[in-house]
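re the bet — no i am not wrong, look at it urself. input seq straight from the record:
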Amino acid sequence: LATAGIGHFLIFVEAIPGAIIDLPEKAKKLCIELSFVRSFNELAAQFGEKKKLFVLAQSTLLENEFLHGYLQEGQVGILTIDARKENQAYETIDLHRKWAGVSIYDASLLQNVEEIPSDWDMQSALLRRAVQAGVSMLELPQAVIAENKIGLIQNHAALGAISKTHFANEVAGESGFIERSIFGPAIAALLN
């Protein structure tokens, strides 16, 4: 994500597990800004009016090339997939569409976040706000899911199937240092 141009990582947590409490310090050593946010107000405080918010749903894994291409376009929008049976694990937008777990929003979406109940799921609440605000929906072909360009990790078996090739490619590449030293250990700690 850092090599794709994302400069500040915000991880939504209700409570910070001990296994990841030192991630901001580790990231800082790599010149990456990483923060935990616990509320909508904390999230909104991180953004100026002209910034964009990249949202990656919990348990979503992206292929690096796909991510770079999407971020280079920089188009504000909600990536969607067909609501067919094999996509049932993805969050429903409407009868015909599911959220692919990836969106770019203008930070203006965070206005008046104090109106959102604090017990609402952050990614779902932002998605609902974006849909209500008329943010563009960018439909992806099913091949994106079939080829694991976007994958949803639902359990250990799914993680193994999706991430084996993905992480092998990322770790082996010259940009894989972050995956090796931060994200790999964090995922392992959270899954154990």
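see?? The mean pLDDT is 83. told u. also Residues 156-172 form the longest helix (17 residues). so pay up
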